[in-house]
């Protein structure tokens, strides 16, 4: 049965942008599972599957409804054990949680701020108003004030990627010789930036940029099909 | 056959302090392998097993001589597959490299600087002179100048542990329900600090401190047997 992925979009339904939804799209493709996305705007999330979650991604797989990207990856891993593994064992599952926490606490705060006005501009009127209200309350600043720190924070952001960059001298993917869910965790964050804003987040010569390019090419170029913001 | 672990010590042979040697001691204990340490001072490293490595740890296991803590852990994992796993699968091996790079680039620089004068004080005269010369060349400052930044950097160091701290809200060890080599990677760094200097690196209420305490208790309290610096 085709899996449904409730996937966050703005006014353009063909440009899903959520980092967490991209993790799941890549995980579904990695497993070779047939799926269909249900384009979902911020204000639609409350109605997804009867309001099961405050956020997307949410998937429906037959009778199973699962929210949260990491929980979804674990669900897929165990529901489809004969498909290519997302974790390559129990150690991979456990360590991927560390990668997830690192990505969330290191990469997301910078990109979330740097792309804030661009993400706002992607929404239709009602969703833009919701986004501005909720984010300005969270940050205690206007969206424009938050994004204004983008250039000043760039060098420090690039430096914060050093553990990943250094790891790439040992192996081509976080997953080793090939990608695993931990790669998609970090990929999702950079894909969020790529789709939201035309901003040179990474230096072209950065090994992280090369790794990101390899991820864009995976699964028939699934993630490259959505063009970078221009 | 008993494995030999060349283990870095200062003037007191009962206080091995190297973070990388502690990773290996914990890995050997985790595997339940019999081993004997060969106390090794900085100036002895060049003579270890015919000068096979510029650093310790080095192990000899019968005819196999292996240098580098990560390489040793991989060697032990594959040479003793029937013993408790250090990685719990190929995903764990790959992701542990990310944890290792994170620990090396996030935790080691601060502790290496904060403990620098204390590590110097642990050496005998000849090794102290070597240590001062090599480290002052590396840092371009006196040992005392490097360590002087300890208090100023403490809050930022504690903040840098946030990915680990946050992960501990999901699971008790980097390895999941129980420790794996990735735990010993981070443990080794904090044990280095614990043995070198009486300095409150972590707040008592920090979940990282609780996790560190659990690691100290592992394997019959192997790592707790060396008292904290006083």
UniProtKB/TrEMBL annotation, chains A, B:
Start and end residues of each GST N-terminal domain: 8-84
List, alphabetically, the InterPro entries matched.
Answer: Glutathione-S-Trfase_C_sf (IPR036282), Glutathione_S-Trfase (IPR040079), Glutathione_S-Trfase_N (IPR004045), GST_UstS-like_C (IPR054416), Thioredoxin-like_sf (IPR036249)
Q: Which domain of life is it from?
A: Bacteria
What protein name is recorded for this chain? Glutathione S-transferase family protein
Q: Which organism is it from?
A: Aminobacter carboxidus
Organism lineage: Bacteria, Pseudomonadati, Pseudomonadota, Alphaproteobacteria, Hyphomicrobiales
């Amino acid at each position: 049965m085709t899996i449904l992925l409730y996937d966050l979009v703005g006014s353009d339904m063909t440009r899903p942008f959520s980092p967490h939804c991209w993790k799941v799209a890549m995980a579904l493709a990695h497993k070779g599972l047939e799926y269909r996305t249900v384009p979902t705007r911020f204000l639609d999330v409350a109605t997804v599957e009867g309001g099961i979650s405050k956020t997307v991604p949410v998937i429906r797989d037959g009778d199973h409804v699962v929210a949260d990207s990491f929980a979804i990856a674990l669900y897929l891993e165990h529901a489809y054990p004969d498909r290519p593994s997302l974790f390559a064992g129990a150690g991979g599952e456990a360590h991927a949680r560390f990668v997830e926490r690192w990505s969330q606490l290191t990469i997301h705060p910078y990109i979330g701020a740097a792309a804030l006005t661009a993400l706002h501009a992607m929404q239709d009127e009602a969703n833009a108003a919701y986004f501005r209200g909720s984010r300005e309350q969270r940050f205690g600043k206007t969206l424009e004030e938050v994004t204004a720190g983008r250039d000043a924070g760039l060098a420090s952001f690039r430096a914060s990627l050093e553990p990943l960059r250094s790891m790439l001298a040992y192996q081509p993917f976080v997953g080793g010789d090939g990608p695993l869910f931990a790669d998609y965790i970090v990929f999702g964050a950079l894909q969020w930036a790529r789709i939201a804003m035309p901003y040179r987040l990474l230096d072209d010569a950065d090994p992280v940029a090369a790794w990101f390019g390899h991820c864009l090419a995976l699964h028939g170029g699934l993630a490259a099909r959505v063009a970078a913001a221009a």
